[in-house]
């Protein structure tokens, strides 16, 4: 607004009768600067009778927070002279240097001040009489009510499933960037286009900044009336769903203070069906929160603020960008400043800006349409409505809307960096609330259902708090690369931060919750919030992966869970996983120098997120790896990724982020070294399986769901690594990453010209939990001479990280194999030998080692397998109906001949049952357990209920069932 007119208003309305003294004498200190004139009542606003219009009247005015240029001293004995603040330079000079410095001098000064003050009061009175009384008596518009049409906008933003949108008390708008949304404001009187000024301000973060894009000021310009921006669905070329026209009648609603009732609103077009209003909110100045007039849930009714009745005509265009731009109307409706598609370059530039247009005015209610750019920061925004009169900006009303506005990434928008053009993939990787996370071994993958629950009302608030904990700048939260990297760091809780969940792998979970007891992410996020941000105990990599899926999908980033079987953790950058054994075949912990901490996990679960990578060369966008399981620090923080899947496949280890580490997890070699007295450095490398690491990489098939089996498994190994793992390119990459060529000699393969004995560790078929098993090693002497062989065969209970928990049984011996003969070495393990020693996932590691004395041939191999536990059967007895109680049965049989103690069930189902843990009695040996529970469906459609059973003696018993809820 014009500074002069604003200042004049302050001088007229903000000063008392005393006013500013020394008007005529103070003129000599003012610069004669002519300002643009605003006509009020036919006269210039800076006109003062008796003075030239060349003088800037704002120089005489006092603004809030500013120092007056002219001192306001009252005539009287207490008035004192202040250097630098006199009204008349000449008068002060005479007072200071006059030879007649008598008591009359002070009297004279007070007299001139009084006379000047009286003169100013007379002139102000004359000026005020020339200005229409309505100009300075009319107050700015006051907001009585705002409506964001949370439910209706959500249908076009693909956010209608979020429970925050459907909250019965105060629905929160959940919007996707790159699209438009409607909202309406009801004022206390009719808007006057010439005199009223309206600004809509959106703020994000604790210190919103215009220059950083976290504070947006949108002045309402009536030249943009009726749809500068068109609906998002039109913009993306997906066709337009015509708005339904409904006839609604609003009953009068009680008000607060001086607000009246809302009368009948008829023949108004809506976006779907308007939701209920939670209550009126009282208008106050400068952002004091309003209170609702009632706490009871109001019945469903149409909104008192109507959206536009007619949708504008759509005009599409295609911009010359990397992706064809989504359509947008540039018709000249009511003087639209964009004209009619005359400058597509300028129009495309406008797509990257916030913008607002007036859709309609109906009495005191104005409906707006706001465009959120596709690059806007993602998070919780607040909306303010600022109003003032023309030329009176200092007399302003600021109204803060109660609603928190959640702005998310938009995979449906071509201009968004997370755009995904496959609708089936968007349905799976953004909207699907449940999925599978794969554990087990590469021969026996075991998928368990996981409820992601990204639409639960606790998830989005938890996501926003976690982003705050990452310390990521608010201005950077529109970049999915930075956001996903921050997510990978905040999931795990380390000693130096307050992440979401504590990882634990030793099987001791008495002071927390076992990782196997969780059925989904919602219970973890809710516990985190209710405990004041204290990390939840406990989780493992597959739990971390499920949490990442929930958070990414909730924020709008397409995400999937990926399992890598036989995943290497190389700690010394040799691209090998080194294990050392003494002469008797016993493993040497941490190597001979106690500084080797390499490990090879039976499986490791991370995540892929979908996005563009403008920071990488072309061809490396798409799926990007992030890993939330703490393994190694990067930049003094435990986080990993995003690393381009394509860069990992090609071995482009120079690209950000953490590509060499991810390449090593998939392509490292498993190297076994045995103590050898004739070796120069004390050890020799034994022959081993070079294809052991990265044996199989899988995810859930987006086109299939299997509650009982594993048919929904999708292998994606070819996306991560070349088919031939021994190709020259792989060796070149590893050699360049090692850097030191002198290391090559220690990792060279043994000379196999003298290897004439063949060894083979047999794979073990499915072993039911509680049954015995045999470990078998085949030996064939292909030479024409007898061979003396030292063999060691060991079965151990192990964690899925590869660490040995306890030895189950070991066989060792030296024997002679005749020329051309075969021998079989077996190790039999009974349930009594393993029952009380098994740990998480009931994994057993079998390690075989052999040494031929005549040829110094050394061989080693290992294998891992799980003991299969019974699957829980989940059955729904009747057809569930919305809002009606339904019974579900969980059953399984105890496979052990011991009692199960400290038992409990965990049940969860989106729209059916919030996460709930139920204590259960002890289970007898071999007992068939049959437990019934009840739930009341809250949402209709196809839903899934997931349950787990845990006890002190056995856990990991889980089941799932699909439930079709009738509306």
Count of individual beta strands: 42
**Biggest beta sheet attributes:** 6 strands, mixed
What number is the mean pLDDT? 76
Please tally the helical runs, counting DSSP H or I stretches of 4 or more residues. Answer: 19
Low-confidence stretches: 1-101, 226-347
The structural class is alpha+beta
Q: What is the radius of gyration computed over CA atoms, rounded to a whole number of angstroms?
A: 38 Å
The CA-CA distance between the termini, in Å, is: 55 Å
| Residues in β-strands, percent | 25-35%
Q: What spatial form do the alpha-carbon principal axes imply? A: elongated
Helix content: 10-25%
Description:
It contains 19 helices and 42 strands. Residues 1-101 and 226-347 have low confidence and may be disordered. It is α+β, with helices and mostly antiparallel strands. α10 (459-470) packs across α11 (480-490). The strands form twelve sheets. Strands 4, 6, 7, 12, 13 and 14 form a six-stranded mixed sheet that branches. The radius of gyration is 38 Å and the shape is elongated.
Structure characteristics:
single chain; 967 residues; alpha+beta; 6-stranded mixed sheet; 6-stranded antiparallel sheet; elongated; disordered N terminus
């Amino acid at each position: 607004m014009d500074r002069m007119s604003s200042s004049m208003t302050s001088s007229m309305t903000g000063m008392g009768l005393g006013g500013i003294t020394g008007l005529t004498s103070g003129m000599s200190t003012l610069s004669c600067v002519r300002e643009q004139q605003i006509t009020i009542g036919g006269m210039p606003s800076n006109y003062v009778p008796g003075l030239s219009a060349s003088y800037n009247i704002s120089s005489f005015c006092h603004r809030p927070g500013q120092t007056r240029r002219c001192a306001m001293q009252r005539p009287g004995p207490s008035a004192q002279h202040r250097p630098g603040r006199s009204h008349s330079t000449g008068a002060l000079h005479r007072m200071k240097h006059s030879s007649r410095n008598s008591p009359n001098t002070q009297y004279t000064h007070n007299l001139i001040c009084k006379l000047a003050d009286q003169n100013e009061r007379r002139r102000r009175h004359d000026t005020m009489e020339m200005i229409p009384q309505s100009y300075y008596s009319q107050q700015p518009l006051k907001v009585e009510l705002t409506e964001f049409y949370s439910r209706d906008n959500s249908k076009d933003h693909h956010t209608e499933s979020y429970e925050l949108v459907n909250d019965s008390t105060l629905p929160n708008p959940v919007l996707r960037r790159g699209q438009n949304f409607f909202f309406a404001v009801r004022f206390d009187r009719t808007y006057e286009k010439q005199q009223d000024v309206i600004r809509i301000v959106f703020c994000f973060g604790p210190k919103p900044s215009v220059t950083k894009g976290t504070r947006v000021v949108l002045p309402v310009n009536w030249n943009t009336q009726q749809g500068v921006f068109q609906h998002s669905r039109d913009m993306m070329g997906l066709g337009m769903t015509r708005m339904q026209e409904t006839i609604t009648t609003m009953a009068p609603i009680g008000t607060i203070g001086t607000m009246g009732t809302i009368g009948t609103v008829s023949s108004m077009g809506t976006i779907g069906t308007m939701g209920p209003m939670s209550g009126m909110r009282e208008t106050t100045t400068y952002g004091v929160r309003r209170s609702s007039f009632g706490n009871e849930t109001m019945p469903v009714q149409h909104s008192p603020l109507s959206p536009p009745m007619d949708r504008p005509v759509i005009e599409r265009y295609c911009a010359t960008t990397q992706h064809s731009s989504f359509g947008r109307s540039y018709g000249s409706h009511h003087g639209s400043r964009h004209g009619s598609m005359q400058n597509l370059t300028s129009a495309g530039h406008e797509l990257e800006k916030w913008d607002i247009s007036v859709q309609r005015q109906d009495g005191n209610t104005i409906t707006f349409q706001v465009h959120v750019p596709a690059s806007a920061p993602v998070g919780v925004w607040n909306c303010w409505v600022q109003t003032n009169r023309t030329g009176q900006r200092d007399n302003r009303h600021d109204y803060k809307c109660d609603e928190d506005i959640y702005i998310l990434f938009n995979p449906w928008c071509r201009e968004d960096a997370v755009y995904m053009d496959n609708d089936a993939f968007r349905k799976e990787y953004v909207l699907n609330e449940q999925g599978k996370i794969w554990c087990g071994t590469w021969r026996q993958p075991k998928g368990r259902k996981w409820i992601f629950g990204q639409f639960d009302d606790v998830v989005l608030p938890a996501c926003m708090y976690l982003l705050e904990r990452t310390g990521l700048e608010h201005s950077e939260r529109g970049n999915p690369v930075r956001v996903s990297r921050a997510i990978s760091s905040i999931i795990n809780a380390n000693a130096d931060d307050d992440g979401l969940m504590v990882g634990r792998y030793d099987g001791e979970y008495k002071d927390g919750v076992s990782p196997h007891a969780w059925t989904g992410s919602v219970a973890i996020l809710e516990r985190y919030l209710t405990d004041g941000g204290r990390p939840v105990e406990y989780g493992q990599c597959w739990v971390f992966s499920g949490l990442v899926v929930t958070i990414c999908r909730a924020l709008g980033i397409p995400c999937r869970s990926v399992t890598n079987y036989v995943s290497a953790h190389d700690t010394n950058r040799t691209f090998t996983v080194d294990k050392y054994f003494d002469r008797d075949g016993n493993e040497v912990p941490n190597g001979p120098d106690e500084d080797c901490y390499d490990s090879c996990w039976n499986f490791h679960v991370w995540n892929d997120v979908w996005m563009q990578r403008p920071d990488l060369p072309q061809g490396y966008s798409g799926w990007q790896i992030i890993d939330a399981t703490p393994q190694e620090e990067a930049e003094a923080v435990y986080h990993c990724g995003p690393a381009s899947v394509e860069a990992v496949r090609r071995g482009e280890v120079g690209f950000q982020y953490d590509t060499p580490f991810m390449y090593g997890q998939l392509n490292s070699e498993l190297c076994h070294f045995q103590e050898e007295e004739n070796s120069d450095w004390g050890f020799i490398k034994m022959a081993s399986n070079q294809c052991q690491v990265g044996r199989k990489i899988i995810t859930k098939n987006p086109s299939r769901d299997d509650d009982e089996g594993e048919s929904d498994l999708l292998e994606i190994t070819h996306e991560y690594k070349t088919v031939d793992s021994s190709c020259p390119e792989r060796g070149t990459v590893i050699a360049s990453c090692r850097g030191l060529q002198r290391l090559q000699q220690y990792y060279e393969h043994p000379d196999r010209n003298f290897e004439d004995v063949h060894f083979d560790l047999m794979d073990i078929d499915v072993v039911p939990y509680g049954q015995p098993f045999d470990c078998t090693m085949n030996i064939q002497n292909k030479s024409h001479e007898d061979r003396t062989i030292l063999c060691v065969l060991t079965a151990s209970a192990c964690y899925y990280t590869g660490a040995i928990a306890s030895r189950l049984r070991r066989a060792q011996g030296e024997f002679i194999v005749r020329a051309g003969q075969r021998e079989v070495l077996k190790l039999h393990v009974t349930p009594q030998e393993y029952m009380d020693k098994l740990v998480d996932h009931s994994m057993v590691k079998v390690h075989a080692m052999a040494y031929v004395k005549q040829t110094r041939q050394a061989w080693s191999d290992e294998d891992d397998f799980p003991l299969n536990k019974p699957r829980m059967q989940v059955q729904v007895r009747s057809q569930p109906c919305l809002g009606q109680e339904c019974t579900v049965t969980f059953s399984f049989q105890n496979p052990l001949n011991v009692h199960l103690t400290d038992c409990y069930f965990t049940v969860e189902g989106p729209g059916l049952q919030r996460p709930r843990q139920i204590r259960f009695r002890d289970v007898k040996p071999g007992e068939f357990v049959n437990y019934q529970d009840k739930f009341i469906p809250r949402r209709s459609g196809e839903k899934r209920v997931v349950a787990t059973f845990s006890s002190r003696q056995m856990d990991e018993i889980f089941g799932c069932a699909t439930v079709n809820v009738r509306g």
